[in-house]
Specification:
Blueprint lengths: L1 H15 L8 H13 L16 E5 L4 E5 L6 H9 L3 H7 L3 E6 L2 E8 L3 H53 L16 H66 L14 H33 L7 E4 L2 H9 L5 E3 L6 E4 L1 H18 L4 E8 L2 E7 L21 H5 L8 H11 L3 E5 L8 E7 L2
Parallel strand pairs: 6-8
Antiparallel strand pairs: 1-2, 1-4, 3-4, 5-7, 8-9, 9-11, 10-11
Helix pairs in contact: 1-5, 6-7, 8-9, 9-11
Length: 446
Amino acid sequence: MIIYLLGIISFMVINSLHYDSPVDTVKLNDITQNVEQNWNSLQSLDEQDFGASFVVVNNSNMAVYRNISAKDSSENKEAAQSVKSYEDAIKKRYPYQNISVGGDIVGSVIMIDSSNAFNKAHIRRVLYALTIAAIILLLGTIGFGIYVKKNIIDPFDRMQEFAGKVALGNLDEPLMMEKNNMFGAFTESFDIMREELASSQKREAELQRKEKELVASLSHDLKTPITGIKLTSELLKAKLEMNSEKANNETSENKNNMSPNISEKDMMEKLDNIYKKADQIDVLVSDLFSSTLDDLGEFKVNCDDTESTLLSDIIKKHDDRGLVSEGDAPKVIINIDTKRMNQVIGNILVNSYKYADTKIDVNYRLVDDYLEMKIRDYGPGVSRDELDLITNKFYRGKVTEDNKKEGSGLGLYISKNLMEKMNGDLICDSEGEGKGLEVTLLIPLS
């Protein structure tokens, strides 16, 4: 709009400038002198050709004589025939000069010769105005086209190219944003999307790496108890075979006596060892299975009302070493998934056995709509800045890594997830490294 307005204004300004008609003053003076000399006999001028047509008008504003030059154009000849008064001359802007006879003004000479030249000058003026206006419009259009290309088309082309790179997975090259780009916010949003996709890709790669490490770690952890089970089983089998062979060679009165190489106590210890190794495998497999279900969104709980005394039974089941010192639990009805609560308490006690190997205190109290269960050990604990991290998936504390303890980093993560699904919570607290770890379970009341 600005460009078009400039073009129109330029045309109007140039067209409004005043131009005097190009008058042949010498020729007009010569005609006037001849008319003055022959005022009383103007017809005598018919024999002369002044090179321009003219009309003589008296003081009564009437045309009294016309001289049409043979050399003049047909347009001027027709114009000379049509002029009858001063008004016609003024309207058509013909040049004129007064006639003086005896010191008195008796009329005027109106020369027609310059009318064609004046019209041509006016046409040239209009053409100049149109040309300048057209140039302004052309230059403005070119400039506007360059502006559109630089600020609209080129940014869109770059975004199209950028989208293609993103689709191909190239997320390292940023989308550059020039100064005064009218799509700046849009371009910035595209680049933020690239950064988020790159971050997501890195997180996914890191997660895949950790999952592979988890599989490797669990494979190693599963291999240890399996090896123990195999060795214990082989030993029992060998001793039983030896016992059977010796029994066959002994006399009938000694046939029912057990071999001194294997006793009932020895047998019970080996069987107990097999049970503990199998239990370790069960915990590891349960953690892995629970983590997989959580990733798939299929990790569900089914809560039912039960007595709080069930918690003591769960603790006794998992306290293989007899390290737990348990306080009295208030007799209330809690709303939990018994199977999942077994998993939660089992994971916490296994962690204390593995990383603390100290006595474990368990205390209860009622807090609002929850039964608060505190499980505290006196091992190395964790630093304050790690408290919010130890319940993250695959995270293992600095102390555990320094001690090179085996683990998957899933126990507390799964336990917290389960407590939240049972409308409760799991909170970890520690006074610092070397001062133990306290895990608080908020168990919802019925």
